[in-house]
Design a protein that fits this description.
This protein has about 220 residues and is of the alpha/beta class. The protein contains 8 helices and 8 strands, in the order E-H-E-H-H-H-E-H-E-H-E-E-E-H-E-H. Bound molecules: zinc ion.
Amino acid sequence: MRKYVIMGVQGSGKGTQAALLCDDLDLVHISVGAIFRWHVKNHTKLGAQVRRLVAAGELVGDDLVEDVVRERLQQHDWNFGFVVDGFPRNRPQAEFFLESYDIDGVILLDLPDEEVRRRVLARRLCSRCGMDYNLIAHRPEIEGRCDVCGGELVTRADDTPEALARRLRDYHGKTDPVIDLFRRKEYVVVVDARDDQATVQQAIRDRLGLPAYRAGSPARLNA
Ligand SMILES: [Zn+2]
């Protein structure tokens, strides 16, 4: 059984790295963001709540996140382990998590704020099918048009420099104490997230003593 937490600021490739790790090792990727997106897409009550918060440029509350993660872990479908992504978000949650689950490691994807700004402000989204693009790493074939459906590419409403600065402050304010707590327990492996996807994945595996990454494995991006 392998139980990991993956942490990293938005734009650090956290979701992709977690998906690559899970695909190969039969781990369950428990992504708080993906769970919330599912609720938004399926117009649940929770989804409506999340939609309101995001429109206001705010983050989903810690209580809501905690409930969602607890419920998800209680399904116990993770026979070989899991990678939790998007949790814990504060010290009490981290303490609860450490007491309840025997965590094998915390992966911290390290990305300087300047690089976060560069990456996040290059993100685009298809206004028709929702496909994600990035003008640095994943450019559309025709500028401003979706490769899949031809829809118009737009910037996310919350990807402005001001909103991003606010999210970065919020991220550091909340996450740095969690990382400190994990560091004291000696769980944390720090991986430089500026490298390309395959290099970062291999670095994670080296640090955790896991089987080598087979380059060319299908990546489920944004999972
Ligand atoms: Zn599209």
